[in-house]
Amino acid sequence: IITISSPNLSTAQSWLAKMKKDFRDARILQQPNGYYRVGVYAARDREMAVVILEKVKEIGYNPAWISVE
Description:
Layout lengths: L1 E5 L2 H12 L6 E4 L5 E4 L6 H14 L10
Antiparallel strand pairs: 1-3, 2-3
């Protein structure tokens, strides 16, 4: 589940620090286009990923989306 995508590493790091309060396993994923995505692993199963996505949005991380990384 991705909650932010930014070309600025310091922005991604700040967002990661915020996410770590709710999701200890949140990570920064560097993209080939120079952007940094911050997110949390959801599941291999799409239905479970949708459930986790809704939880992430409930907590207040919106927009958020499912991404296959």
